[in-house]
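TASK: fixed-backbone design
INPUT:
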Protein backbone atom coordinates (compact mmCIF):
# COMPACT_ATOMS: atom_id res chain seq x y z
CA UNK A 1 0.00 0.00 0.00
CA UNK A 2 1.39 3.41 -0.89
CA UNK A 3 1.48 6.30 1.56
CA UNK A 4 -1.66 7.98 0.27
CA UNK A 5 -3.83 4.87 0.48
CA UNK A 6 -2.32 4.10 3.90
CA UNK A 7 -3.32 7.53 5.18
CA UNK A 8 -6.76 7.20 3.57
CA UNK A 9 -7.28 3.82 5.22
CA UNK A 10 -6.15 5.19 8.57
CA UNK A 11 -8.47 8.16 8.26
CA UNK A 12 -11.40 5.94 7.37
CA UNK A 13 -10.57 3.74 10.34
CA UNK A 14 -10.43 6.80 12.62
CA UNK A 15 -13.83 7.99 11.38
CA UNK A 16 -15.33 4.54 11.89
CA UNK A 17 -14.04 4.55 15.41
CA UNK A 18 -15.59 7.82 16.48
CA UNK A 19 -18.57 8.25 18.75
CA UNK A 20 -21.80 9.11 16.91
CA UNK A 21 -23.52 11.54 19.23
CA UNK A 22 -23.90 15.20 18.35
CA UNK A 23 -24.70 16.13 21.97
CA UNK A 24 -23.50 14.20 25.00
CA UNK A 25 -27.04 13.71 26.25
CA UNK A 26 -27.55 11.36 23.30
CA UNK A 27 -24.40 9.31 23.95
CA UNK A 28 -24.43 5.52 24.18
CA UNK A 29 -22.36 2.88 25.93
CA UNK A 30 -20.74 2.08 22.53
CA UNK A 31 -19.78 5.73 22.03
CA UNK A 32 -18.13 5.80 25.43
CA UNK A 33 -16.31 2.52 24.83
CA UNK A 34 -14.65 4.15 21.81
CA UNK A 35 -13.83 7.34 23.69
CA UNK A 36 -12.54 5.47 26.76
CA UNK A 37 -10.18 3.39 24.65
CA UNK A 38 -8.73 6.49 23.00
CA UNK A 39 -8.55 8.30 26.31
CA UNK A 40 -6.48 5.53 27.90
CA UNK A 41 -3.94 5.74 25.09
CA UNK A 42 -3.87 9.54 25.35
CA UNK A 43 -3.49 9.48 29.14
CA UNK A 44 -0.55 7.07 28.89
CA UNK A 45 1.42 9.76 27.07
CA UNK A 46 0.90 12.41 29.76
CA UNK A 47 4.47 12.12 31.09
CA UNK A 48 5.81 12.80 27.59
CA UNK A 49 3.65 15.90 27.20
CA UNK A 50 4.72 17.12 30.64
CA UNK A 51 8.42 16.57 29.92
CA UNK A 52 8.10 18.28 26.53
CA UNK A 53 6.48 21.30 28.18
CA UNK A 54 9.07 21.38 30.96
CA UNK A 55 11.79 21.65 28.33
CA UNK A 56 10.29 24.98 27.23
CA UNK A 57 11.97 26.42 30.34
CA UNK A 58 15.41 25.60 28.92
CA UNK A 59 17.40 28.79 28.29
CA UNK A 60 14.70 30.96 29.82
CA UNK A 61 16.66 33.04 32.34
CA UNK A 62 14.25 35.91 33.02
CA UNK A 63 17.16 37.74 34.69
CA UNK A 64 17.88 34.91 37.16
CA UNK A 65 21.43 33.50 37.58
CA UNK A 66 20.39 30.19 35.99
CA UNK A 67 17.64 29.31 33.51
CA UNK A 68 14.27 28.03 34.64
CA UNK A 69 14.98 24.45 33.58
CA UNK A 70 18.27 24.43 35.53
CA UNK A 71 16.41 25.85 38.53
CA UNK A 72 13.86 23.05 38.23
CA UNK A 73 16.58 20.39 38.00
CA UNK A 74 18.45 21.92 40.93
CA UNK A 75 15.32 22.08 43.08
CA UNK A 76 14.54 18.42 42.30
CA UNK A 77 18.15 17.32 42.79
CA UNK A 78 18.35 19.01 46.19
CA UNK A 79 15.09 17.35 47.25
CA UNK A 80 16.26 13.95 45.97
CA UNK A 81 19.66 14.18 47.68
CA UNK A 82 17.87 15.13 50.87
CA UNK A 83 16.00 11.80 50.75
CA UNK A 84 12.56 12.97 49.60
CA UNK A 85 10.29 10.37 47.99
CA UNK A 86 9.62 10.23 44.25
CA UNK A 87 6.32 12.09 44.25
CA UNK A 88 7.91 14.94 46.20
CA UNK A 89 10.92 15.03 43.86
CA UNK A 90 8.64 15.10 40.82
CA UNK A 91 6.70 17.98 42.37
CA UNK A 92 10.03 19.76 42.93
CA UNK A 93 10.97 19.16 39.30
CA UNK A 94 7.67 20.45 37.93
CA UNK A 95 6.82 23.18 40.44
CA UNK A 96 7.61 26.04 38.04
CA UNK A 97 6.49 24.45 34.77
CA UNK A 98 3.47 26.78 34.71
CA UNK A 99 5.70 29.80 34.15
CA UNK A 100 5.01 29.68 30.41
CA UNK A 101 1.21 29.72 30.40
CA UNK A 102 0.44 30.69 34.00
CA UNK A 103 2.72 33.70 34.04
CA UNK A 104 0.71 35.40 36.80
CA UNK A 105 -0.23 32.26 38.76
CA UNK A 106 2.34 29.64 37.82
CA UNK A 107 2.12 27.51 41.03
CA UNK A 108 -1.50 26.62 40.27
CA UNK A 109 -0.64 25.21 36.85
CA UNK A 110 1.89 22.64 38.11
CA UNK A 111 -0.33 21.90 41.11
CA UNK A 112 -3.27 21.08 38.84
CA UNK A 113 -1.13 18.77 36.69
CA UNK A 114 0.33 16.78 39.60
CA UNK A 115 -2.85 16.74 41.72
CA UNK A 116 -4.10 13.24 40.69
CA UNK A 117 -0.74 11.66 41.52
CA UNK A 118 0.38 13.13 44.84
CA UNK A 119 -0.79 13.48 48.42
CA UNK A 120 -2.82 16.47 49.53
CA UNK A 121 0.29 17.81 51.30
CA UNK A 122 2.55 17.64 48.25
CA UNK A 123 -0.19 19.22 46.14
CA UNK A 124 -0.64 22.00 48.70
CA UNK A 125 3.07 22.73 48.76
CA UNK A 126 3.11 23.09 44.97
CA UNK A 127 -0.03 25.21 44.83
CA UNK A 128 1.12 27.64 47.53
CA UNK A 129 4.87 27.80 46.98
CA UNK A 130 4.61 31.20 45.27
CA UNK A 131 3.45 33.00 48.41
CA UNK A 132 6.05 31.18 50.53
CA UNK A 133 8.85 31.84 48.08
CA UNK A 134 7.88 35.51 48.28
CA UNK A 135 9.27 35.58 51.83
CA UNK A 136 12.71 35.75 50.20
CA UNK A 137 12.08 38.63 47.78
CA UNK A 138 8.66 40.33 47.91
CA UNK A 139 10.07 43.08 50.17
CA UNK A 140 12.55 44.06 47.43
CA UNK A 141 9.61 44.74 45.13
CA UNK A 142 7.50 46.76 47.55
CA UNK A 143 5.34 43.73 48.35
CA UNK A 144 4.51 41.96 51.60
CA UNK A 145 7.09 39.26 52.34
CA UNK A 146 4.80 37.91 55.05
CA UNK A 147 2.06 37.09 52.53
CA UNK A 148 2.45 33.42 53.50
CA UNK A 149 1.16 34.25 56.98
CA UNK A 150 -2.41 34.07 55.65
CA UNK A 151 -1.83 30.30 55.50
CA UNK A 152 -0.42 29.95 59.05
CA UNK A 153 -3.44 27.87 60.11
CA UNK A 154 -2.84 25.22 57.43
CA UNK A 155 -1.46 21.84 58.53
CA UNK A 156 0.89 22.15 55.55
CA UNK A 157 2.34 25.58 56.37
CA UNK A 158 5.61 24.24 57.77
CA UNK A 159 6.04 21.71 54.94
CA UNK A 160 5.66 24.44 52.33
CA UNK A 161 8.02 26.79 54.19
CA UNK A 162 10.54 23.93 54.35
CA UNK A 163 10.24 23.21 50.61
CA UNK A 164 11.01 26.82 49.77
CA UNK A 165 13.77 27.20 52.36
CA UNK A 166 15.66 23.99 51.63
CA UNK A 167 15.07 23.45 47.92
CA UNK A 168 13.34 26.22 45.95
CA UNK A 169 14.92 29.47 47.15
CA UNK A 170 18.26 27.64 47.43
CA UNK A 171 18.24 26.43 43.82
CA UNK A 172 19.86 29.32 41.95
CA UNK A 173 23.52 28.30 42.26
CA UNK A 174 25.27 28.16 38.86
CA UNK A 175 28.04 25.97 40.38
CA UNK A 176 25.71 23.31 41.78
CA UNK A 177 25.92 20.01 39.88
CA UNK A 178 22.34 18.90 39.30
CA UNK A 179 21.21 15.61 37.87
CA UNK A 180 20.13 15.89 34.20
CA UNK A 181 16.48 15.71 33.14
CA UNK A 182 17.02 12.08 31.98
CA UNK A 183 17.71 11.14 35.61
CA UNK A 184 14.22 12.29 36.62
CA UNK A 185 12.30 11.01 33.59
CA UNK A 186 11.68 7.49 34.98
CA UNK A 187 10.39 9.09 38.20
CA UNK A 188 7.96 11.29 36.27
CA UNK A 189 6.74 8.21 34.37
CA UNK A 190 6.28 6.16 37.55
CA UNK A 191 4.53 8.92 39.50
CA UNK A 192 2.22 9.77 36.59
CA UNK A 193 1.53 6.15 35.59
CA UNK A 194 -1.76 6.01 37.44
CA UNK A 195 -3.90 8.50 39.38
CA UNK A 196 -4.29 7.85 43.09
CA UNK A 197 -7.69 6.36 44.05
CA UNK A 198 -8.85 9.70 45.56
CA UNK A 199 -9.14 11.23 42.07
CA UNK A 200 -12.55 9.94 41.06
CA UNK A 201 -14.38 9.76 44.36
CA UNK A 202 -16.78 12.32 45.71
CA UNK A 203 -15.16 15.02 47.84
CA UNK A 204 -17.57 15.20 50.77
CA UNK A 205 -16.07 18.56 51.78
CA UNK A 206 -16.97 20.11 48.42
FE1 LIG B 1 7.71 29.13 41.55
FE1 LIG C 1 11.11 27.71 41.86
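OUTPUT:
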Amino acid sequence: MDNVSEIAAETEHAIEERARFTAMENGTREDWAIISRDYMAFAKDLPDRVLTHLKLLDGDFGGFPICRLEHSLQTATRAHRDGRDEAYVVMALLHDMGDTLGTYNHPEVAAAIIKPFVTEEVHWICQHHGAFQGYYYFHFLGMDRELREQFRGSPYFDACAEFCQKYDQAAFDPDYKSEPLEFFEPMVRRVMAKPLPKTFVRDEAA
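COMMENT: The chain has two domains: 3-44, 48-198.
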